[in-house]
């Protein structure tokens, strides 16, 4: 399978060339265009119980789409995410990565989606009560609103709420005030997320909550 991420950091999209016999699982409604000969099958996102929890507690869709090339020729598929921003590919080799709700875009066979308790700190930090843990062997594509910034952490890192996209499962999240009570709330920062441990985190340069906070006052 040949995969190209195009569109730049602002308007990324995923262009896939599926060889005969290849398949890919995508987030529901991610398809922008596809060869007419490709087979598309909606599937429950895991078991009925896990799909329910991923939708209502993990921010993911109840169904995913599986695209298969059952022809004898290479067929193209284009995938997009719901918000403008960067898309990134990860090669999983029996490893795992945690994603914020809504970040998953697509994965090859051998990659599974699981839901784990993220804790109250994650919920207060507007990252959700549960986290999506992607594991297995294969390619994973995910994205978010804005550019994706990668940081290596060995100790602690402060991340503004709603900006954390992906992180190693061993990392721990805590929520705290950005500073003192007065400076935190009157300075506009409020609560932040403290990421602790050793590993890699990915941060988005923009947040939907920041966009809505800027747009809403201008609509009235």
What does this structure look like?
With 220 residues, the protein is mainly beta. The protein has a single domain (2-34, 41-63, 75-215), classed as 4-Layer Sandwich (Double-stranded beta-helix). The protein has four helices and 15 strands. The relative contact order is 0.16. The model has no long low-confidence stretch (mean pLDDT 83).
Task: Please state the CA-atom Rg, rounded to the nearest Å.
Answer: 18 Å
What would you give as the CATH superfamily?
A: Mitochondrial biogenesis AIM24
Largest sheet: 11 strands, antiparallel
Q: How far apart lie the N and C ends? A: 49 Å
Query: Can you count the beta strands?
Result: 15
Individual helix count? 4
Unreliable sequence segments: none
- CATH class wording: Alpha Beta
Quaternary state reads single chain
Element pattern in H and E? EEEEEHEEEEEHEEEEHEH
Name given to the CATH architecture: 4-Layer Sandwich
Helix-strand makeup class: mainly beta
User: Roughly what is the average pLDDT, rounded to an integer?
Assistant: 83
- CATH overall fold name: Double-stranded beta-helix
Q: How would the global form be characterised?
A: globular
Number of domains: 1
């Amino acid at each position: 399978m040949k995969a190209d991420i195009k569109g730049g950091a602002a308007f990324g999209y995923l262009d896939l060339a599926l060889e005969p016999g290849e398949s890919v699982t995508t987030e529901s409604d991610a398809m922008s265009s596809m060869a007419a000969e490709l087979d598309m099958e909606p599937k429950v996102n895991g078991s009925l119980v896990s799909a329910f929890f991923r939708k209502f507690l993990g921010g993911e869709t109840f169904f995913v789409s599986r695209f298969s090339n059952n022809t004898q020729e290479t067929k193209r598929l284009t995938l997009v995410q719901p918000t403008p921003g960067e898309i990134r590919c990860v090669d999983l080799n029996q490893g795992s990565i945690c994603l914020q709700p809504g970040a998953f875009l697509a994965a090859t066979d051998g990659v599974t989606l699981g839901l784990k308790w993220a804790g109250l700190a994650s919920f207060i930090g507007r990252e959700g009560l549960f986290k999506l843990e992607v594991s297995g062997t294969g390619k994973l594509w995910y994205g978010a609103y804005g550019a994706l910034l990668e940081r290596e952490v060995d100790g602690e890192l402060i991340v503004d709420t709603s900006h954390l996209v992906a992180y190693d499962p061993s990392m721990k999240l805590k929520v705290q005030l950005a500073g003192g009570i007065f400076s935190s709330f009157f300075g506009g920062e409020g609560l932040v997320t403290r990421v602790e441990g050793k590993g890699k985190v990915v941060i988005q340069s923009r947040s939907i909550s920041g966009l809505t906070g800027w747009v809403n006052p201008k609509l009235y």
